[in-house]
Amino acid sequence: MKLKVHLIFNGNCEEALLFYKEALGGELAFLFRKKDEEARIEGLTVADVDKEKISHMVIKTEFFELTGNDVDHDQKAIIGNNNKLILVFYNLDRCRKVFDALAKEGTITVPFEKNFFSEGFGEVTDKYGIPWIIMMTDEGYQG
What we know:
The chain is an alpha/beta fold. The protein has helices spanning about 15-25, 35-40, 90-105, and strands spanning about 5-10, 25-35, 55-60, 65-70, 85-90, 105-115, 120-125, 130-135.
């Protein structure tokens, strides 16, 4: 079984996923623009304003994949408060480094610190409005 997280953006998917690639230490595995979709699907017409937008993009990290796309110009992706992405680490230095990278230009909602269930835990909403929980594993932790 594999977990993939798919995010939908209002025209800045490529920028956001490339940011996550750097912050999370991943690699760009796939990028397909809407103009490429038009070229492959007979009868499909993509508005000029949407041609450079992302139809599908994949960032692979050591433990999971992030995928994403942009909505068309006549649609609106609504960033909600009904989800958080949780990253669990086994190395405190790497955990802190990722928290700091996602917090850059974002908003820290819970500062990264040791607590009763984890050696390190924090919550951040990144500069793209995506909420994250970044934490050390709680397996066997006795704080």
